[in-house]
Specification:
heterodimer, A: MetI-like fold, 9 helices, about 0% strand, B: MetI-like fold, 2 strands
Chain lengths: ~250, ~270
C-alpha cells in the first residue's frame, strides 16, 4: 500500500481526511501554497537584512536628517500592527499608484498582492533588523574602530570590512529570532489574498471540509519551516564563530 | 558581549538597544504625516464633498471603539497567557526531567507556530459551548492568541529564573528552605524585576497582533476602519483613514516601548 492508498483508506475507513496526500488537485494547491510561502519568506528575509544593514548605517550617519529618517522609520514600523501596515499598503497606498495594461488589455495594479506583501513584511522585519544590527555594532569595541581608522579606512570602508563582519556575528541570535518571526508573519498575506500556505489550506478545508486535519498539517508544516530556518541559522552561526568569543 | 549572546530569552532582542530620542518629537512627526496626508487628500478632493477632516472626525469615535475592543482583547489575552506561561515556564526549570522536557516541547511548539494559524485553530476547532458555558467568538480569539503568548511568557519566566546566580539557590538550600520556598520566596521576587521589561515588550507585540482577529470575523478597529471606508466609498479617504488607525496603535504602543527601554536600563546587570 503506498502513501496515497493509505490516506485514501484512512478516509474511507475512519473518516480522517488528509486529502492533500491522495487527491492530486488538493496536493498541487497545497504545494503551490507552500512554494509561495517559501518564496515570500526568502525574499523578505534577504530584503529585510539588506534594509537592516542600510538602516543601521544610516542611524550612525553624520547628517542629522538621515539619522532622524532612519529613527522615524524604525519607530513607526516597530510600534504599529503589521496587519494594519499591510492593509495600508495594499488597500490605501496602492490606489495612489498608476495602473498598467495587462496582457488581456485590461487595467492591472502596478504591484501585485504578492509584491505588496513582500514590501510590507520587508519593511516591518527590516525595522527590527535595524535595531538588531545596531546592537551588534554597539558591541564592537571602540578600540577596534579606532584601529581601523588609524589604518586609513574610510567610514564606509571600516563599516564594510571591520565593523559589520564583527557585528553580524554578535547579533546572529537576535537576528535568528526576528527571522523566525518574519516567517510566521508571512501568514498575514492571507488577508490580502496572496495564495500562500494558509490561504491554500483554507481553500482546501472549506471545500473538502477537513478543518481538523488541515489545521494540524498546517501547524506541522510551519513548525517544520521554522525548524529548517533555525537549523540553517545555527549552522551559519557556527561557521561564522570567532575563536575566543563565547563558549 | 555575554548578554548579547543569549537574546532568545528576551522576545525581540532589539528593544533594549533603542537609542533615546524625545518621544514627543517622534509623536509630532507621526501626527504631522497624518495631517499632511489628510490635507493632501483634501486638496485632491472635489469641492462639493465633505472635507476629509470632517469625515475622519465623524468616524473617529466608531473606529476608536473598535480600537478599544482590540485593547480589551489584548488585556484579556495577556492575563490568560501570563498565568499559563508562568506555570509552563516554572515547569521548564522543574527538577523532574520528564516534566522539563514536556514543558520545553510545548513552549517551543507554541513559540514557533504562526499566531494567525493558532488563532484559526482556536476559532475553528474549539466548540461553540463547553457544557452549559457558551464560548463566544471573542473568547475563542482570546484563547487562540494566548497560546503563543503563553509560549513566549514561558521563555521569559525561564530566562528570568535562570538569570539568578546559582549561589542564591545554594545559600537558600543551606538555610533549609524547601524547593518551593526557595522558588517563591527567594528566586522569583528577584527574577520578576528582570522579567518585567520583556513582559511589557510581549504585551506591545500582542496588542499589535490583536488586529488579526479582524481576519477571523471579529469586529475590531481594522474592521471598523474598513466598514467606514465602504460606507463613504471615497478613494481619497483610504490613506488618511488607515493612517488614523495606525496612529492610534502607535500612540498606545510607543510609550510602552519607551517605558520598557527605560526599565531595562534601570534593571540592567552591570558587567
Amino acid at each position: 500500500m503506498d502513501v496515497a492508498q493509505f490516506f485514501s483508506w484512512l478516509n474511507d475507513a475512519h473518516g480522517i481526511n488528509f486529502s492533500i496526500f491522495y487527491d492530486p488537485f488538493d496536493r498541487d494547491r497545497f504545494l503551490a501554497g507552500l512554494w509561495t510561502t517559501v518564496a515570500l519568506s526568502v525574499i523578505c528575509i534577504l530584503a529585510s537584512i539588506a534594509l537592516g544593514i542600510v538602516g543601521a548605517w544610516a542611524q550612525g550617519a553624520k547628517s542629522a536628517v538621515v539619522r532622524a529618517v532612519a529613527q522615524g522609520y524604525v519607530q513607526v514600523f516597530r510600534n504599529t500592527p503589521p496587519l494594519v501596515q499591510l492593509a495600508f499598503f495594499y488597500f490605501a497606498f496602492a490606489t495612489l499608484l498608476p495602473t498598467v495594461r495587462d496582457s488581456f488589455g485590461g487595467q492591472a495594479p502596478l504591484i501585485s498582492s504578492f509584491g505588496w506583501a513582500v514590501i510590507s513584511f520587508s519593511l516591518f522585519a527590516g525595522a527590527f533588523n535595524v535595531e538588531i544590527f545596531r546592537s551588534g555594532i554597539e558591541a564592537v569595541p571602540q578600540s577596534t574602530i579606532e584601529a581601523a581608522e588609524a589604518l586609513g579606512y574610510t567610514r564606509l570602508g571600516a563599516y564594510r570590512h571591520v565593523i559589520l563582519p564583527l557585528a553580524i556575528r554578535v547579533c546572529l541570535p537576535a537576528l535568528n529570532n526576528n527571522l523566525v518571526n518574519l516567517v510566521k508573519t508571512t501568514t498575514l498575506a492571507y488577508a490580502i489574498g496572496v495564495p500562500e500556505l494558509l490561504y491554500a489550506a483554507a481553500q482546501i478545508w472549506s471545500e473538502v471540509l477537513n478543518v481538523r486535519e488541515m489545521m494540524n498539517v498546517l501547524l506541522v508544516t510551519y513548525i517544520a519551516l521554522v525548524a529548517l530556518l533555525v537549523a540553517a541559522m545555527n549552522k551559519w552561526e557556527r561557521m561564522m564563530r570567532v575563536p575566543g568569543f563565547g563558549q | 558581549m555575554k548578554v548579547l549572546l543569549t537574546p532568545r530569552i528576551e522576545g525581540f532582542g532589539g528593544s533594549r538597544w533603542l537609542k533615546p530620542i524625545a518621544s514627543t518629537r517622534a509623536l509630532a512627526a507621526v501626527v504631522f504625516v497624518f495631517l499632511a496626508s489628510a490635507a493632501w487628500a483634501q486638496a485632491a478632493a472635489p469641492a462639493a464633498q465633505a472635507s476629509v477632516m470632517s469625515v475622519l472626525w465623524k468616524w473617529a469615535p466608531l473606529i476608536f471603539q473598535g480600537f478599544l475592543f482590540n485593547l480589551l482583547v489584548s488585556v484579556g489575552t495577556m492575563a490568560l497567557g501570563t498565568v499559563l506561561g508562568v506555570f509552563l515556564g516554572l515547569a521548564q526549570v522543574s527538577p523532574y526531567r520528564g516534566l522539563r522536557r514536556a514543558a520545553w516541547a510545548i513552549t517551543q511548539f507554541f513559540r514557533n507556530a504562526p499566531w494567525l494559524v493558532l488563532l484559526f485553530y482556536a476559532m475553528l476547532i474549539l466548540p461553540f459551548q463547553i457544557g452549559p458555558v457558551a464560548l463566544p467568538s471573542w473568547l475563542k480569539a482570546v484563547i487562540g492568541l494566548s497560546l503563543p503568548v503563553m509560549g513566549n511568557i514561558a521563555e521569559i519566566v525561564r530566562g528570568g529564573v535562570l538569570s539568578i546566580p546559582t549561589g542564591q539557590w545554594e545559600s537558600a538550600e543551606a538555610l533549609a528552605f524547601s524547593r518551593r520556598q526557595i522558588l517563591w520566596m527567594i528566586i522569583l521576587p528577584q527574577a520578576v524585576k528582570r522579567m518585567i521589561p520583556p513582559w511589557m515588550n510581549q504585551y506591545a507585540i500582542l496588542t499589535m497582533a490583536t488586529t488579526l482577529i479582524s481576519i477571523v470575523g471579529i469586529q475590531d478597529g481594522l474592521t471598523m476602519t474598513r466598514a467606514a471606508l465602504v460606507a463613504e466609498a471615497r478613494t481619497d479617504l483610504l490613506v488618511p483613514m488607515y493612517l488614523m488607525l495606525l496612529l492610534m496603535f502607535f500612540v498606545y504602543c510607543y510609550p510602552i516601548a519607551r517605558a520598557t527601554l527605560s526599565l531595562e536600563r534601570r534593571f540592567a546587570v552591570k558587567i
